[in-house]
Amino acid sequence: MNQAEKAFGKLLDHLRETALLQASMRLLSWDQETHMPPGGAEIRAGQLAQLAGLIQRRRRAAVLGRLLEESRPLAEGVPPDADVAVILREAQRDHDRAKRIPVRLAEQRARLRVLARRAWVEARAERDFARFRPWLDKVFKLMRRWADALGHDGNPYDALVDDYERGETARSLADLFAPLREALPALLGRIRDHGRPVDASPLSRLCPVDAQRGLARAACETVGFDFARGDLTDTVHPFCSGLSPEDVRITTRYRAEAFIDGFFSALHEAGHGMYEQGLPAGEFGTPLGQACSFGIHESQSRLFENLVGRSAGFWRHFFPRVRSAFAGVFDDVAAGDFHRAVNQVRPSFIRVDADEVTYNLHIFLRFDLEQAILAGDLKPRDLPGAWNERFAALFGLTPAHDAEGCLQDVHWGATLVGYFPTYTLGNIYAAQIYERARAELGDLDEGFARGEFAPLLRWLGEKIYRHGRRYPPAELAERVAGAPRSPAALVRHLEARAAETYGL
Amino acid sequence: MNQAEKAFGKLLDHLRETALLQASMRLLSWDQETHMPPGGAEIRAGQLAQLAGLIQRRRRAAVLGRLLEESRPLAEGVPPDADVAVILREAQRDHDRAKRIPVRLAEQRARLRVLARRAWVEARAERDFARFRPWLDKVFKLMRRWADALGHDGNPYDALVDDYERGETARSLADLFAPLREALPALLGRIRDHGRPVDASPLSRLCPVDAQRGLARAACETVGFDFARGDLTDTVHPFCSGLSPEDVRITTRYRAEAFIDGFFSALHEAGHGMYEQGLPAGEFGTPLGQACSFGIHESQSRLFENLVGRSAGFWRHFFPRVRSAFAGVFDDVAAGDFHRAVNQVRPSFIRVDADEVTYNLHIFLRFDLEQAILAGDLKPRDLPGAWNERFAALFGLTPAHDAEGCLQDVHWGATLVGYFPTYTLGNIYAAQIYERARAELGDLDEGFARGEFAPLLRWLGEKIYRHGRRYPPAELAERVAGAPRSPAALVRHLEARAAETYGL
Most buried of A94, A170, A262, A368 (most Cβ within 10 A)? Predict the structure, then answer.
C-alpha cells in the first residue's frame, strides 16, 4: 500500500467516526420529537450541543485536511464520478465549509434547535405567537451569523440554501419557480370555476387513531418501506431520520377527524425513508453513503406521497384495506369517489395537509418571508401580520389563529432557514423523474392496482439511491430525467390529475 | 475566588460534560432495547463503543486528576458528608478506578454489550443456547480482564462486585445471605406442607395487552412515578434508564396470559424510576446527583414491587381498576382472593416473575454460577447442565428448555457479571427500610387503601434519594433503617406475608 492509499484508509476511518457521532445526534433528535418528556429539554440541549461541538471539531480538524491532501493522488486520472474521486471531492467540500463555521457557533445552533423547538411546541399548542417570538429572533440572528460565516456575494440566503442544495441561490430557485408561480393560480381558477364538484366530506369522518396507526404502517410497507430496517412512530411534526440504511426512523401524526392527513404524511416520510434505506450500507460515513441533497430527498418523499400515493392505481389496490381498517365508516363510499376526494384541490391553511396544486403556494409564501426576515426587511414580530396578509392574497383565506398560520411549521424553530424551497424543488424533480420512470417501466398505475410497487422502487434505487453524492443534485436530476430541469412536467402532471379529478 | 474554588468550578464542568455523554449513551442503550430495528445493531455497537471511549478518556484524564488535586483544600476541615467533601471523595474514587481501565477495554466492553445482547435475544427466542455460547465465553473472558485491570486480592469477582456495590466482596455478601439460605427453604416447606391452598388460576386469564399497558401506567402513576418527567415503554427485558431526574425511562413487557408479571415488572421499574426522579436535578453530573449503589437502587425497586405492590392496602385501592380495565374478566374474583393470588408462593422458572420467597433462591443460583464461571471452575458450555442440575436441587423442577433456564436473563449478555447479588441485597435493605418507614409514618397499609402513596415516597426522598452518593451504601442503609444490616427484617416480612396468605 502506498502513502496515498494509507492516507485514504485513515480518511475513511475518520469520516466513519464522524458519521457515528452524527448518527447519535440524529437519534437524540428523533427521541426529542417522539419520546422525550418535556422536562428533558435542558439536558438534551446540552447533549446535542456537546455532540455538535465534537462533530464540528472533527470536520474542521487539521488532520482531516492532511489526509485529504495526502489522498489526492488517488483521484488523478480517474473519471470524476469514480468512487475515490467522489469521496475526495465531497469530503473536501465538507471540510472547506466546516472550517468556516466555528465550533462554538455549531454548539450554539444545536442548543438553540432544542430550546427554540420546545418554545415552538408550546406556542403552537397555546396559539400564542408571543411565546415563540424571542426564539424566532434568536434563530434568524444566529442563522444570519451562520450565513456570514459561510460567506456569500451579498445575499446571506444564498449561503444557507447552498447548505441544503449545493449550487442553488435565491435567484436560481426564483427563476426555476417563476413559471409555476404563473401557472398555479390559473389552474386553481379553472378548477374552481369549471371543475365538476368533488365531495371530500367522507375524509373528515371519525377514524380511530389505533386503526390509523396500523393502516399507515401497512401503506408504508406496501410501497416498499422495510420495517426490518426501520420504524414508524408518532410525533408532533412528521419527519424522517436515517441513522444508517439499516435503521431508518419515520414519524407521522394522527387526528381522528382527518385520517388522510396523517396517512399521506406517513407516505411522504416513507419516501424519505426508502431513499435512506437504499443508500449503500457499505459506504456508511462516506459521501457515497449520503443522500445527494434535500431537494433530491424531497423529490422522493413527494413522489411517494403524491405521484404514487394519490394515483388511481394505488387506491384501486389500497381502498379495500381502508374499508376494512375502519369497519363500516366508508361502506357507502365508492372507490372512485374516494380517489377523487383525496385529490380535491382547495385552498387550506396547513402546508403538509395541502393538495398538490396549492402546496407550492405555501412554499412560495415561506420562501419570500424567510428571505425578508433574514435580510432584515421584515421583523420577526411583524411575521404574523405579514403572513396573514400574503396568505389572504394567495389563498383568499385568513388564518383564525397563528397555529394555522405562521406557527404551523417546525422548521424555523429547528433553525432550518432556507429549507422550504427544497420542497418545491422536490415536486419539480419528482414529476420529471416520474415521467421518465413511466417511459422506461411502462404503465405503473396498472402495476400499483395489482399491488406491485417494487419495480418503481428498484428503478429509483438504481438511478438515485445507490449513487449517494456521486453527482451534484441538479446534474443527478437531469441524468435521471434525461432532460434539462423545468417545472413543465409538474404542470403536466397537475393538469392531468385535475382532468381526472375535475373532468377539466 | 481562590485557586481551589476556581479548580472546583472547572471540576464540576468536567464532571457535567462527562455526564452528558453518559446520558447520551444511556439513551442509545434504551433505544437499542425498545425501538431499534435488528439491523441497527452493528452501527449501534460502533456508536456505543465510541461514546464509551470518549467517556473513559474523560474519566481517566490527567486534567481531571489535577483539578481534583487543586480542589482538595476545600474539603479540609469540613465534615465528611458536606457537599464539597462528598463530591471530591467520590469523584476521586471514580477517577482512580477509571485509570485502571484502558480506553480500549471500555470500548470493547461497550461493543460486546450490543452484540452479545443481540445474540442473547435471538438465542432466547429460538431456545438455542449454542447460539449464545460463544458470546457468553467472550463476556466472561472480557469481564475477567476487567476485574484483573481493576485489581483484587485473588478473587476477581470482588472487583466486579465493588463496581456495583462499593465495599462488598463475594465473602461479605455470602455471609450476609447465609441466614436467608437457611431460612427460605424451611419457610417454603412450611407453606407447601401446612398452608391453606391459594387459587392463583385467575392470574392466567387472558387480558388484552392494550388494556395491560394502560393499567401498568396507571399503577406506576399511582405509586408516584412522574410521567411529566418520564415514560413507560415496551421491551424484551424490563429495565429503567435515568438520563436525568427530568427524563427517566422505564420499560416492561406484556403477555396476554400473565398480566400480573408485566404489571409487577412495571412497579419494579417505577421504584427504580422514582429514585432517579428524586435525585437532586441541580447536581446533575456530580456524585451528589448520582444513585448511591445498585443494591440501594434495587431496594427501591423491590420495595415498590413487593412491600407496596403486593400489600393488602395497595390491592384494596387498586383492584377495582383491574376489574374495570379488563371488563368482565375478574368479576367473579373477590378482592381478598386476588390479593392472596398475587402472593402465591410456588417454585417457578422465571426469576422476574417469581414470588418473594423463591426469588432469592433464583439469585443464589446465579450468584454461585457466575462466580464459578469467572473463576474458571465452570465452562460456559457446561452452563445449561449446571443450571438445570442446581435448579432441580433448589426448586424441584427442571426447565423444559434454556429460555426458561439459563437464557432467561439479559444480564450476562449485557456484560453485567456480579450484578445479581444486588437484588437480594436490595430485598434485605428494602425490608429494613420499610420496617423503619412504618415505625415513623404509622400504618402505611391504611393509607395505600385510601390511595395515599405520597407520604412514603416523600420519606424515601428525604432519607435516600436526595443524598445521592453522600454515604457509602451500607452506611446509608444502616442510617435509614436505624439498625445494623441483617436479613432478619426480610424474614419477618416473608413470614408475616405467609401468615396473611397461607394462614400459617
Answer: A262
Measure the CA–CA gap between A445 and A502, rounded to whole angstroms.
Answer: 19
- Angle between helices B488-502 and B356-375 in degrees, nearest 10: 140
Residue B252 pairs in a beta bridge with B234
What's the pLDDT tens digit per position in A359-385? 999 999 999 999 999 999 999 999 999
| A199 and A292 co-located in one domain | yes
Q: Which of B28, B39, B227 sits opposite A229 (nearest CB)?
A: B39
Residues forming beta bridges with residue B231, ordered by sequence position: B249
Place of cell 449503589: B293
* Whether B186 contacts B404, CB under 8 Å: no
pLDDT attached to residue A303: 98
Tens digits of residue pLDDT in B159-208: 999 999 999 999 999 999 999 999 999 999 999 999 999 999 999 999 99
Partners of residue B243 in chain A, C-beta under 8 Å: 40, 43
Q: What is the distance between the alpha carbons of residues B31 and B25, in angstroms, rounded to a whole number? A: 10
**DSSP label at B411?**
T
Q: What are residue A45's phi and psi, to 5 degrees? A: -60, -40
Per-residue 3-state assignment (H helix, E strand, C coil) for B144-213: HHHHHHHCCCCCHHHHHHHHHCCCCCHHHHHHHHHHHHHHHHHHHHHHHHHCCCCCCHHHHCCCCHHHHH
Quick check: is A269 catalytic? yes
Spatial strand order of the sheet with B230-234 comes to: B230-234, B247-252, B240-244
Q: Are strands A247-252 and A240-244 parallel, antiparallel or unpaired?
A: antiparallel
Q: What is the ipTM of this complex?
A: 0.94
Whole-model pTM?
0.95
Same domain, B330 and B442: yes
Say if A474 falls within a structural domain.
Answer: yes
Bridge partners (DSSP) of residue B244 are: B247
Q: Interface of chain B against chain A, CB under 8 Å?
A: 16-17, 20-21, 23-24, 27-28, 31, 35-40, 42-44, 46-47, 50-51, 54, 210, 227-231, 233, 243-244, 246-247, 249, 284
Angle (CA) A338-A240-B35 rounded to 5° is 105
Give the gap in angstroms from C-alpha B228 to the nearest C-alpha of chain A.
Answer: 6
| Structural domain includes residue A399 | yes
Residue B83 grid cell: 457537599
Section B80-85 average pLDDT: 97
Residue span of the structural domain in which A311 resides: 170-502
Which of these is catalytic: A269, A276, A305, A356?
A269
A264 & A396 share domain: yes
> Residue B163 domain-assigned?
no
Alpha helices by DSSP H, listed for A103-208, are 103-126, 129-150, 156-164, 170-194
Tell the residue number behind the cell numbers 389496490, with chain if given: A317
Cell of A235: 410525533
CB spacing of A51 vs B244 below 8 angstroms: no
**Are B246 and A40 within 8 A, CB to CB?**
yes
